[in-house]
Design goal:
The protein is mostly beta strands and about 300 residues long. It is built from one helix and 24 strands. The chain starts with a helix and ends with a strand.
């Protein structure tokens, strides 16, 4: 199956059903490797892997030399999102019967459930001040974006569209949120004020665009995925949609990205080795470095602030 088709199928499945069934990988999970002593004090990357037999959230050091499974649960865990101070992770899990949002300490302790709804809640993302979490939920019959307090209280819906809205990411110091929607085409990146007003399509073309990630600090840029060049590649752009720059250029699919804390590199998942592995690359597209090498798929990396 071509990489673009596979990635588009994956995104359509996740957005349509907001389910955590593990059907977005094709490799056979391997026996977990022995995990060395893990150093939580340096650069840390959260990612998803089925190397332990089902989808779990793992951490690895910034150079990929050590990993640790921090969820270790029989149900699927996904959508890891770092708190602004790097001390906690919000994530989605089906451990209570359907996808809900949880929070835990960076070492996997102190797991606390934040949402409790019969419909699916996914894609948490913290506001820069740590007081709010944006997320996507299908509790109104289709995927919409909500904002709640960081303790799970006071959820407020901020989008209302018959199409799918998901993958919210706070930008511009917490004054705006970028997100995915298929309201105008197969998929575009939108931006809106933090209260849901002034929604603007930033990509607005016939290609499939998804998976936005905000740059750190005052860079005011986002990375995103697009298939405008025939397969999924990573691009960056300003918050008004201008200066769209291609970062990756590979015949295999390059997908979900995250910025390093200094804004000079991106980490991303890619099929260029025949399965999903995690790489790091300079923001100008040079010097790609492979960080994972496992027979199971490693996906959706998130750099700790």
């Amino acid at each position: 199956m071509r990489a673009t088709t596979r990635s588009r199928h994956l995104m359509a499945h996740l957005l349509a059903a907001l389910t955590l069934s593990a059907c977005d990988g094709t490799s056979t999970p391997s026996e977990p490797d022995p995990e060395p002593e893990f150093d939580f004090s340096g650069d840390v990357i959260a990612f998803e892997s089925e190397r332990a037999g089902n989808r779990e959230i793992h951490l690895m050091t910034g150079d990929g030399s050590a990993t640790i499974n921090i969820t270790n649960h029989s149900s699927a865990d996904a959508d890891a999102a770092w708190s602004p101070d790097g001390s906690k992770l919000a994530f989605a899990s089906a451990r209570d019967g359907n996808a809900e949002i949880y929070v835990m300490n960076a070492d996997g302790t102190g797991v606390t459930r934040l949402t409790n709804d019969p419909d699916e809640d996914r894609y948490p993302n913290w506001s820069p001040d740590g007081t709010k979490i944006a997320f996507a939920a299908d509790r109104d019959g289709n995927a919409e974006i909500y904002v709640m307090d960081a303790d799970g209280s006071n959820p407020v819906r901020i989008t209302d569209n018959p199409s799918r809205d998901a993958e919210p990411v706070w930008v511009a110091g917490g004054t705006k949120i970028v997100f995915f929607s298929n309201r105008d085409s197969s998929g575009d990146i939108f931006i809106m004020d933090a209260d849901g007003s002034n929604q603007i399509n930033l990509t607005d073309d016939t290609s499939f665009n998804c998976s936005p990630a905000g740059a750190p600090g005052a860079l005011d840029r986002i990375s995103f995925i697009t298939d405008r060049d025939g397969n999924d590649e990573i691009y960056t752009m300003n918050l008004d949609g201008s200066d769209q720059q291609r970062v990756t250029n590979n015949p295999a699919g390059d997908f979900s990205s995250s910025w390093t804390s200094d804004g000079t590199h991106l980490i991303f998942d890619t099929e260029r080795n025949g399965q999903w592995e995690i790489y790091e690359i300079q923001i100008d597209g040079t010097n790609p470095v492979r960080l994972t090498n496992n027979s199971a798929d490693d996906r959706f990396p998130r750099w700790r602030p």
